[in-house]
Amino acid sequence: MTKQDFNEGLLGFLDASPTPFHATQNMAGMFSNAGFIELNEKEKWNLEAGEKYFVTRNDSSIIAFTYPKNSKEYLMVGSHTDSPNLKLKPNPVVKEHGIVKFAVEPYGGLLLNPWFDRNLGLAGRVNYSDSSKAVKSALINIDKSIAMIPSLAIHLDDKANQDRTINRQTDISPVISCNEDFDFEIFIKNELAKMGIKDVEELYAHELSLYDTQNASYIGVEDEFIASARLDNLLSCYVGMLSICSIPNDKPMLFVANDHEEVGSDSTSGAGGSFLESTLKRMFTDFDDYVAMARSSMMISADNAHAIHPNYPSKHEPNHAPYINDGIVIKINANQRYASNSTTISTFLANAKRLEAQTQTFVTRSDLGCGSTIGPITATKIGIETIDIGLPTWGMHSIREMAGSDDAYELYNILVGFNI
């Protein structure tokens, strides 16, 4: 696969995955097309050596794995499907001052300022009853600009460029209509009908998020960068997905993409839940085999890393400030916010050197807070040696982030050629 083919596929995946539900659906489709067999957690598994499988939970998390059966040295790659965004509240419609707005709640630690004056679409999961009273669910993606959060004019806020703050309750409600007869349930039913789902009696609940309708694209005079929403962490999801699809069936590898990392991972489908652990225990039913596998394997927790910002270089640790398009970033933190240790770092570096791949090191400034990943959580729950790595990016948690057009392809080549 060429870098251009890789990146074109990445842009398409980003545009087609406005929510964790859609990302998981798209990855499941990719795995099915690549010959992976779908499993159901509610059913008995009869795994056969030499096959490859995938399983989803909550429609928003996914695990795929090869099954050599007797091999216990697995390379595992972990990522997350969720990104900071604005979610609709359960009763989302607000009608006042002659317009209709959506009431929203920030999800995760998002940068709010860039959400103003953007064309916003709506996507997610809805649950409803049909005429037989059965409860069903469907994914919807209203891929058009239905909303915008207008800024307050500079004339009405003369300190906007000095010390403007944003009230998360009152300042970020998107405007959607002037029609005060707008009915949210009818609106959703109409959208479902456009998808061919017409037997909808009552809308019960929804998990819907606003998203920027601007497509992912190349940036730079020589296309050096990629700009898109949700690079954190669909970038790693895409790399992990393609990597496991590219290796032979007899190579032991597992890929997991969890939901809810941005809010702490404590959910049934998050890394703090049982999804990965229960999957591994069904793969290795003998406890001794399970422990031997966990202690013989390695987890690469792949998330984004802060590239040195050319306009704010003082925000970075001088000797540990990664550059975009200059190699994969190894993330280290003395207080275990990242799970990297000298053993896993050395294993990764040895593979990178063998594959002639560049690497960099990130350590946050000691006077700034440090984010975390699924790495320490997975290492704690499974007992697997783990390294946290990342792709260098700017604008993390903004509505539109930037990364290099070389780095994701570089990580793909490392993962495909990796030996524990």
UniProtKB/TrEMBL annotation:
One Pfam family per UniProt: Peptidase_M18
GO CC annotation, single: cytoplasm
CDD domains, alphabetized: M18_DAP
GO process terms (BP): proteolysis
Enzyme Commission code: 3.4.11.-
SUPFAM superfamilies referenced in this protein's UniProt entry, alphabetically: Aminopeptidase/glucanase lid domain, Zn-dependent exopeptidases
An example molecular function term from Gene Ontology annotations: aminopeptidase activity
Co-factor(s): Zn(2+)
Alphabetized UniProt keyword annotations: Aminopeptidase, Hydrolase, Metal-binding, Metalloprotease, Protease, Zinc
Keyword Transit peptide set for record: no
Family: Belongs to the peptidase M18 family.
NCBIfam families reported in the protein's UniProt record: PRK02813.1
Record's protein name: M18 family aminopeptidase
